[in-house]
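C-alpha cells in:
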C-alpha cells in the first residue's frame, strides 16, 4: 500500500523514526505530482471529506465516497466513466452467476469477472501493478485509473471488490493489515473469510495474514487489524489516500486537521495516527531548521514544543495499540 520508509523527525527526544504511510517525493514521481497540481480544482480536501463522512450512516455509499475522494486528488478524472463501468461489471457478474442467488455463487462470479480472462473483461483481467511493487504511486490508488488500466494495488483493488460485492448483495467489509487491505466475506450462515484482492481474489486465512504481516497479539486485541470494519470506518480509511497525497506534496499543515477528521470516524486507523504524527514531526523539523530551539522566540518555541509533544504522543498511542513499523 505504501512505499519505502520515510525518515522524519520523531520528536520524542528528537529521535529519527521510520514512517511508512506517506513517503518522500522522488524524481520518479515529480512529473506526476506536477500534473496533479495542474489538474486539481480549488476544492478543499477537508471540506470534501467532511461532505461524505458527516452524513448519516444510511446515506453512506462506497462508490460515491471513493469518487469524491479521488476527485479531491485529481479533478480531471471521469466520474461518469467509473459509474458506467461499475454498472457494466455488476451486470456481467450477474450474468456469470447465471441467476444463482446464493452468495457463494455470486462471490465466485465476481472472482471470475475480475481475475479470469474472458469476454466479461475483454480478456484483460485485473491484476496487481508489478511496475509499482510497493504500492507507492498515488494514481494507482484511484478507482478511475484502476478501471482504465486494469492494474492496481492494495487500495484500489479491495475498493473495487468492495463496491461490486456490496452492489451484488454480498456481505463484504474491508479488513486492515499493516499497510494493506483485504476484503472479508461472510455468508448467511456466518461462514466465509478474508479475500486477497491483490492476488486473484484467493482466500487468505487470518493465521497466514498474521504470519506474513507480523501482526502481534496486541494489535489483534486492540482491533486495529483483522477485524471487519464498519461502513463508516471503511469510508474513513478510503479517505486516507487524500492524506497520503497531501503528505507526499509536503502539505503537512493540511494533513493535521484532515487526519484528525478521519480519526474521528475511525479512531483505530493506526497508520493514520502515524501519518498525523509524521506530519507533526515534519512541521517541527521545519521550525527547527529555521531557528535552533534555544534561539526560538517564545511563541515559536511553544509551537515547536507542542508539535514535538504531539508527535511523541501519537507515536506512543499507535504503539500502545500494537502498531509497529512494517519493513
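Residues out:
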Amino acid at each position: 500500500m505504501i512505499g519505502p520508509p520515510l525518515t522524519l523527525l520523531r520528536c520524542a527526544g528528537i529521535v529519527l523514526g521510520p514512517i511508512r504511510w506517506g513517503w518522500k517525493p522522488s524524481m520518479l514521481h515529480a512529473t506526476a505530482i506536477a500534473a496533479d497540481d495542474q489538474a486539481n480544482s480549488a476544492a478543499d480536501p477537508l471540506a470534501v471529506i467532511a461532505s461524505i463522512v458527516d452524513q448519516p450512516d444510511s446515506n453512506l455509499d462506497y462508490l460515491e465516497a471513493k469518487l469524491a475522494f479521488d476527485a479531491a486528488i485529481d479533478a480531471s478524472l471521469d466520474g461518469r466513466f467509473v459509474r458506467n463501468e461499475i454498472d457494466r461489471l455488476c451486470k456481467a457478474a450477474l450474468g456469470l452467476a447465471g441467476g444463482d442467488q446464493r452468495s457463494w455463487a455470486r462471490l465466485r462470479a465476481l472472482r471470475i469477472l475480475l481475475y479470469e480472462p474472458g469476454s466479461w473483461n475483454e480478456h484483460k483481467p485485473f491484476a496487481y501493478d508489478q511496475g509499482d511493487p510497493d504500492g507507492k504511486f498515488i494514481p494507482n490508488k484511484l478507482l478511475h485509473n484502476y478501471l482504465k488500466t486494469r492494474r492496481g494495488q492494495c487500495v484500489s483493488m479491495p475498493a473495487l471488490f468492495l463496491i461490486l460485492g456490496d452492489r451484488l448483495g454480498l456481505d463484504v467489509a474491508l479488513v486492515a493489515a499493516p499497510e494493506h487491505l483485504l476484503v472479508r466475506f461472510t455468508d448467511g450462515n456466518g461462514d466465509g473469510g478474508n479475500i486477497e484482492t491483490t492476488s486473484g481474489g484467493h482466500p487468505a486465512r487470518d493465521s497466514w495474514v498474521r504470519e506474513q504481516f507480523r501482526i502481534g497479539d496486541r494489535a489483534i486485541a486492540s482491533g486495529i487489524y483483522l477485524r471487519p470494519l464498519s461502513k463508516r470506518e471503511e469510508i474513513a480509511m478510503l479517505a486516507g489516500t487524500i492524506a497520503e497525497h497531501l503528505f507526499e506534496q509536503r502539505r503537512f499543515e493540511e494533513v493535521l486537521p484532515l487526519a484528525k477528521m478521519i480519526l474521528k470516524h475511525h479512531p483505530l486507523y493506526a497508520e493514520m495516527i502515524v501519518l498525523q504524527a509524521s506530519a507533526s514531526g515534519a512541521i517541527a523539523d521545519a521550525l527547527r531548521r529555521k531557528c535552533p530551539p534555544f534561539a526560538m522566540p517564545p511563541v515559536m518555541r511553544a509551537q515547536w514544543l507542542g508539535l514535538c509533544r504531539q508527535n511523541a504522543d501519537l507515536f506512543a498511542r499507535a504503539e500502545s495499540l500494537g502498531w509497529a513499523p512494517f519493513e
